Every structure is written in structure tokens, then in C-alpha cells.
Amino acid sequence: MNLNQITILSFDTRTSVRFYKKLGLKLIVDALPRYARLECPDGESTFSIHHTEDLIINKGVTLYFEVENLSKTVLELQEKGITFNSEIKEQSWLWQEVHLKDPDGNPIIIYHAGKYRKNPPWRVN
Fold first, then answer.
1. Domain VOC: where (predicted)?
2. Helix, strand, coil shares, percent, the chain, to 5
3. Which residues of the chain does CATH 3.10.180.10 include?
4. Tens of pLDDT along 6-17?
5. For 62-125, which CATH class?
6. Which of 10, 79, 11, 74 is nearest to 47 (CA)?
7. Cα–Cα distance, 110 to 68 (Å, whole number)
8. What tens digit of pLDDT does each residue of 102-116 get?
9. CATH classification code of 1-54
């Protein structure tokens, strides 16, 4: 089994698409303003945005996007006008991460974990 797509809800799909394109995702399905699907620049995952009039932010769901060079990515995104809610932080689980929110308030973490994403020293065998 492979997780290949996540769909989020948005009040304003056009604004959300512009935001996620700034993050580096590529628009591959344009049925705006109702729906859009974007492709992650690495791997095979896709990401969809579906319009809603009744948005409830689920505080239990966070979107994670992994990059190879977090410092470089943060600088590039700041140059594009992306605002972060935190500085880059070294986490105790051996990841570097930075936090932000999308236009609808969905929490996002951009991070670098490298080998530790699937193989931390405490991995169960």
C-alpha cells in the first residue's frame, strides 16, 4: 500500500493553489474554483485542494513536506513572500523542521529528516 494523495479543504482554492505553487508544487489538474490537484516536485505524491463553504480546521492533522536542504528552502520561500511561524529547529527525534500555515490555517511543517525519517536509532525491528 502506498499513500499517494492528500486532499485539504479550502475557502479560496485559487489563493491556496498560488500558495502551494510557491512552495514548489506543480498544478496538474485545474478545475478551479472547485478543485485542483498538484504534484510534489519529488516522488510520486499528489496533493489536492477542494473548495468548501464549511471549513473546520482539524488541529490533529499536519502537512509535512520533506526537503533536502532546509535552510536553502526556507530562504527561497521567504524571498517568495512565505511567512514562517518558527525558526528552523533541531528536534530531539533528529529532524530539522520549520512551521508555517497555509492561507486556510492548515498547519505545515517543512523538514529534513534524511535517513532518520524511516530509520531512527530507536526503530522497531
1. 2-113
2. 20, 35, 45
3. 1-54, 62-125
4. 999 999 999 999
5. alpha beta
6. 10
7. 10
8. 999 999 999 999 999
9. 3.10.180.10
